[in-house]
Amino acid sequence: MYKVFGDMLSGNCYKVKLLMQFLGIRHEWVHVDILASATHSEEFKRMNPNAKIPVVELDNGSYLWESNAILNYLAEETQFLPKDKYERAKILQWQFFEQYSHEPYIATARYINKYLGLPKEREAEYHTKQAGGHKALSVMEQHLAKNKFFLGANATIADITLYAYTHVAHEGGFDLSEYTNIQRWFQDFERIPGYIKMTSAPLEQNK
Fold it and tell me: In terms of pTM, does the model score above 0.85?
């Protein structure tokens, strides 16, 4: 059984939880308090020397980190990761987009506002994230005007990757009301069997 070290209010950890719920993967969830610097303990850094969550302990006792790598690993041989070479490359295309053009703006603004309480010394940084975040949202909005999900008719880990931080982008100051295609995509995504909300409540272990 997998053991997941994470925080359900982290979009990157939520990605992993969503896929495990969709696939009914047995796992134990271990909460990690990032604000208490729990990821910087020597014990944690033995699992991930980069001192970040999520981390998944595999059945053989080895560890895997970086959320999108974990998604690709868990989704192998499932409907969430196509077998076609081009389709798999498009999955990676959207995952790289999320990491380089989306998360640095939307997730960072959310972290500064929600986790840190928008301290004065980071206000300028917070405001500089808005333009980049809206650029990423506009790319998504345009794509979803012609596609139900990011690879077409069916949800994949590309959707999980992008949904995690997009659906809470308002917590980073992004007004999503004008992004009608993204709003429609939220509704379709949330109908996937097994969907759970991002929550700070204690998790029941899926065993």
Answer: yes
